[in-house]
Please model this.
Amino acid sequence: MKLISRICWLLVGGLFIFSGLIKINDPVGTAIKLEEYFEVFATDFSPIFLALEPYALYLSIFLSALEIILGVALLLRWRLRQVLVSLLVIIVFFTFLTFYSAYFNKVTDCGCFGDAIKLTPWQSFTKDVVLLVMILILLVTQRYLPKPGREATAGWAVAITAIIAFGIGIYAYLHEPFIDFRAYKVGNNIPALMKPSAQLKYKYIMEKNGETQEFTTYPTDTTFKFKQMVALNPEAGPKITDFNVWNDSGDFTQQVFQGNKLLIIVQDVRKSHPESFNEISNLINGAEKVTAKKIEPMVLTSSSGHDFDVFRHEVNLAAPYYFADGTVLKTMIRANPGIMLLKNGVVVGKWHHNDVPDLQTVQALL
Model:
């Protein structure tokens, strides 16, 4: 029992630290996931959950930091019983969330490990059940764990962990994530990721006379009733499926991938930071004068044409603008506004509006 207890101790502590670090690395992405849950609960339970949406970012940083703090506290055996009870409360809540998402097919990606590791709803639920069992084991067998060191020393270590965790979250919010796990990270070829990496294969689930059968080719027997088509190699599918750029003149998606493009991404003019556009406008003006390596500025927004026309005159943003899906823009960059530099469809640079680059930096990447 001693061995089982210590294995659970290391696994639970390590997993909570890992999960918290992954999420606090991208607090805006975690906040977006929380907003999804709030919208689902507002529809299924009570509209009161919508009142939490403005606080999603704060909750994102707090909950992510709390996972790290509790994980470190557990490994140090600091106030062990209180920490285990806190972990139990958290995992019971997470288990309910993942079961609800899986059973009712509500939120298809729980965001447990951010964009780093994608889990299906049932995989997320299974993971939480395993953690729940291990925490219960620890509550019963905590006497088998190594004796804690000095209480004061462990307390200072937990306090320092809290400062570092919150610092990471705040810095990642004010800039871009430290590690980018998204499909639009620097070095990725967007048009290549919009295509399958291999030929997709499927199995067809059919029904006949009350019996279900599976086929790798669609049966010619018309007496079979189609039930479902399942991909056999889903990992070969396109990693980007919803990137489109357009305006009233038509589709401009392929033009984005031609030559050097300086994309100014303004997800929503109502939530943008107008004070950032002085530097952005200076960068655009400089880029338009470059002749050796022609750089074409393009503004992408999900706001309406009317709203954006009013906004761009207010901030003096003189560049052609196009429309894109708001969720895609949030995935591309966690800033509003943000800047992305493409070279023939390859992402060669990304900047938060707090880190607007100078023209020399942009040119050096092309």
